Amino acid sequence: MSNKMPILFSLLLFVAASPILAADAVPATWQAGAARATITPTHPMPMSGYASRTDPASGTRTELWAKALVLQDATGNRGLILTLDLVGIDRSLSSAICAELEDKLDLKREQIAICTSHTHTGPVVGKLLGTMHYSLASETEQASIQKYTETLQKTIVEISEQAVANLQECELAYGLSTATFATNRRDNRPESEVPSRRTAGTLAGPFDHSVPVLTVRDNNNELQAILFGYACHATTLGDQLWSGDYPGFAQQELETIYPGCQAMFWAGCGADQNPLPRRTPELAAHYGRRLATAVDAAIMTTEMLPLEPTLKTTYSEIDLAFGTLPTEAEIDQQIQSKDRFVASRGKQLKQQLADNGSLDATYPYPIQTWSLGSQLQFVFLGGEVVVDYSLAIQATREQPTWVAGYSNDVMAYIPSRRVLQEGGYEGGGAMVYYGLPTAWAPTVEKQIMDEIKSQQRVVQVPSETPTSK
């Protein structure tokens, strides 16, 4: 009897201790939280995206959304991804949002990625595309724009706080699919010939038809969020109804397929890519279904690969150089132009000269890189980035790299050196609508690529490989 008591006592100690040991042995996991709110304007205001518009929106085709997804790794490091059904946001609004989020959620700038869908049936926001919109707007219109922008900032901060409050254990996985409706708009003109060229297999120019997909599943294996992207302008529609265009329809479709799941879209490097043919609501819905089907195919028919619960983030702004700046005499000529947009830019540049004594020779261009696990890197670039960048960046790494454009600050088109030399709208012609003084310098691509490579080294997470003893 006395010999059995020590054994029984030891056994009881082991049983009592085993839950603690088991808990310690459980690997740490991701946590994630999602939230969203509508951002469809509730008062009459100008629409963004096209210089030809003169009237406010007359109604709503689909609601516009702001959506937040907070990711937290095993060490407690967080990253916040915001997706907005907007043509873009400017530097001023982006900075204000991030400053408030740092104050309220203790998130540093590198931990916040603000992505926009670039829908051309959304509202004017802040002074984005200022020469096209804000500077030519009436006082009443400017007041409505300011009111909307203030409300937007408040909404974004609120859903970010809600997303943090909704954090729960989850699994992150990633995959890749394909959608083929994006068409290089520079190399396939006129648009009317695109259907016949597609039939004949003679579409020209570079493109990126990849559809990156990130899924968030809770402990019951239920989808909580889907984050996906595509490199194509959201320009199917150009009428006077608020709409998320094809990205809005794609998100709606996915949320119908997966009830309770939050679908979030980010625009890739689609500055020179259009959904063609276009211009009808039926086509916008069609492209949305095709994109949603591509995302669904990745989830249902391919192996979605789990991501290790490790998140590393970095962010910087480089001094992106302009080309030769206009002289004061040339600015005076712009002011006299019969083109109201050229004249508007001239007046803005003249004011800069008066205020500062000179024009800025560079622009603070935002570049951001995240690593999720050791497998996946996510690069966020400001501006309307042409497809050459995503193709070049993906070619630099053997492991998957996703590249979002229209992120953090949409200040201009961002051409590659090739597109810059070719010229045209993306190569420099669009600068007038953004109020920037001239085209970018020939060094633009090298500056951006050098910084991306530097950031990729900073956030690189080494793969876990067995070590021999």
Automatic annotation (TrEMBL):
It catalyses: an N-acylsphing-4-enine + H2O = sphing-4-enine + a fatty acid. One of its GO terms (cellular component) is extracellular region. Its cofactor is Zn(2+). PANTHER family: CERAMIDASE, NEUTRAL CERAMIDASE. Keywords: Hydrolase, Lipid metabolism, Metal-binding, Signal, Sphingolipid metabolism, Zinc. Residues 1-22 form the signal peptide. Residues 31-256 form the Neutral/alkaline non-lysosomal ceramidase N-terminal domain. It comes from Roseimaritima multifibrata. Residues 184-203 are annotated as: Disordered. It comes from the Bacteria. GO terms for biological process: ceramide catabolic process; long-chain fatty acid biosynthetic process; sphingosine biosynthetic process. This is Neutral ceramidase. Its EC number is 3.5.1.23. Residues 184-196 have a biased composition (Basic and acidic residues). Belongs to the neutral ceramidase family. Zn(2+) binds at residues 118, 233. GO terms for molecular function: metal ion binding; N-acylsphingosine amidohydrolase activity. The keyword Protein biosynthesis does not apply. Pfam families: Ceramidase_alk (PF04734). Binds 1 zinc ion per subunit.
